[in-house]
Q: What sequence folds into this?
């Protein structure tokens, strides 16, 4: 039986563990193209959140109505409608951001992050879960874009959100490095942040496994999901891991044919 995912976990998984930009490596083109400034990353991130949440909700509501054979064109049509709305809003109220993002606003329609969540999640889950997934993935994408934009803007232009940093301005103690706002600098920053995210998730997983093992050690076989069928009940040298303990009942059920009448 699959583990039930809590609303909090559903909301936060896209921020670090399944970050769409750093972990799933989706939406790479706009991530590299528009993150020359932090404000551009923030603007694109907010637009992605709006489109992602709205499209996830609508697709989830229509998941039992949309024919399977035409689901992708329908998903793109729904996404395009919300992209048109956000494009007109940005053009009307933030024209400078509209000019900076340019073609990448309408290209949100085919952004892999949004289309992937529609196909992999929203079309198979409830409206509430799809909304949480959209918010979480959108926040993760926004965090990634703002982080990339901030690093590139600080090191490449000596500013942050268009505010000057005296120590990094021309004539200051450290000179801005133009390469960071050029494509090579974007790839360099992107690669470094992907490596950091991989290391961070690996450390989180290691701490999680250590915590489970400590709990099993403290409670003995009473804290092990496989205690009744593993044949090692009470064995002080038992080295069954948390993952093995979770899989053992499933394997035992498969070997015995499950619940047969």
A:
């Amino acid at each position: 039986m699959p583990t039930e995912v809590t609303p909090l976990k559903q909301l936060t998984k896209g921020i670090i563990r399944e970050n769409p930009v750093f972990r799933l490596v989706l939406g790479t083109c706009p991530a590299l193209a528009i993150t020359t400034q932090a404000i551009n990353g923030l603007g694109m991130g907010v637009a992605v959140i709006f489109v992602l949440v709205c499209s996830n909700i609508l697709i989830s509501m229509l998941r039992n109505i949309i024919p399977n054979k035409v689901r992708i064109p329908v998903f793109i049509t729904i996404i395009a409608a919300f992209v048109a709305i956000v494009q007109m809003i940005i053009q009307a109220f933030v024209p400078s951001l509209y000019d900076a993002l340019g073609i990448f606003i309408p290209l949100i329609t085919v952004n892999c992050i949004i289309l992937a969540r529609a196909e992999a999640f929203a079309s198979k889950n409830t409206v509430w879960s799809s909304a949480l997934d959209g918010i979480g993935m959108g926040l993760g994408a926004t965090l990634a874009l703002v982080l990339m934009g901030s690093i590139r803007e600080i090191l490449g232009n000596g500013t942050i959100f268009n505010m000057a940093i005296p120590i990094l301005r021309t004539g200051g103690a450290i000179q801005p490095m133009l390469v960071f706002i050029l494509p090579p600098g974007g790839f360099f920053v992107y690669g470094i942040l992907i490596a950091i995210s991989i290391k961070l998730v690996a450390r989180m997983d290691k701490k999680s496994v250590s915590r489970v093992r400590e709990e099993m050690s403290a409670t003995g076989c009473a804290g092990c999901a496989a205690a009744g069928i593993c044949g090692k009940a009470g064995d002080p040298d038992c080295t069954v891991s948390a993952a093995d303990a979770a899989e053992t009942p499933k394997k035992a059920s498969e070997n015995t044919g499950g619940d047969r009448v």
Q: What stands out?
A: Strands lie at 159-160, 163-164. The CA atoms of residues 31 and 39 lie 13 Å apart.
